[in-house]
Prior knowledge:
With 345 residues, this protein is mainly α. It has helices at 3-22, 26-44, 50-81, 92-106, 114-120, 124-131, 136-145, 151-168, 175-194, 198-222, 227-230, 233-236, 238-252, 260-272, 276-302, 323-335, 340-343.
Amino acid sequence: MSPPIYAIMLSSLATGAIITMTSYHWLMAWIGLEINTLAILPIISASHNPRSTEAATKYFLTQAAASATVLFSSMLSAWQTGTWDITQMSYVPSNALLSMALAMKLGLAPLHFWLPEVLQGSTLFTALIIVTWQKLAPMSLIYLTINNLNPTILLILGLLSSIIGGWGGLNQTQTRKIMAYSSIANLGWMATIASIMTNIMVMNLLIYLVVTMALFSFLIVSKSKTIQDTTMTWTLSPAMTIMMTFLLLSLGGLPPMTGFAPKWLILEELTTQNLIPMAVSMAIFSLLSLFFYTRLAYTTTLTLSPNTLQTKFKWRFKQTLSTPLMMTLSTMAIFLLPLTPLMLM
């Protein structure tokens, strides 16, 4: 893809999400979602191989179905209430439909099947866009409509996502699929807390974005597409292997990393709301996610791929990502736990 076209697609991607995030009219929100979807399709299929074409097709079909459901639910609401205002969606069937549509948009279980496949068919950079920027528009709609959405549906979606996000990632060897299931699990935590305390959800989203961007930037630089590839990261930069370990543990929610803060606050809030079985279940199933993060950290730092004395190491190509940006993101992803009270203000 030529640079001008690529720039147009990326700017359209940004525009679509911003339109959705700043609109209070359902039609404008839907238009933003459509621009967002149509802009990323050429980026996914730019590799010109059957896998990327398949990924683009799957992405298009699921996102089109979700967008159509969003439009249908908003039309139902407008028909019943006489308003297209996003925040005034009081018709119960519309809210249920909207919850499922946004779950499909985000890749929440049980509507998650497209996400690992699409990520596997994309490049690492495209996968980064899908699991970070593409989540902002649907999450903003959840934020705007949260007073009307059914909390039970969100809690069920969150619990299922936490279970499937952990379980699905256990037997994966591809880093993109692992990150897809990681995304499902993390979004499950956000869906769980969304109806209880939105500022924790927003904080969780921001921390998730920072940690995921930092980790993906390391995967892109080291060109690690499989777990076996991560065993050769040390040949590029020993410091990178250490940072990747910390990032993975942060994503798993281990203290004293930044990723511990949202899980801690969510479990505390669930307990406060007397949802103790839910809190216990979420904590237990997060151990599944932690297992595959730890496995990835182990292979990155403590193992070597099978090699001989004549093994050819990776060429140290010129980095395409800014080192200061990577270091800033990594530092934020690891050391922000003491600032938790400030982030909630």
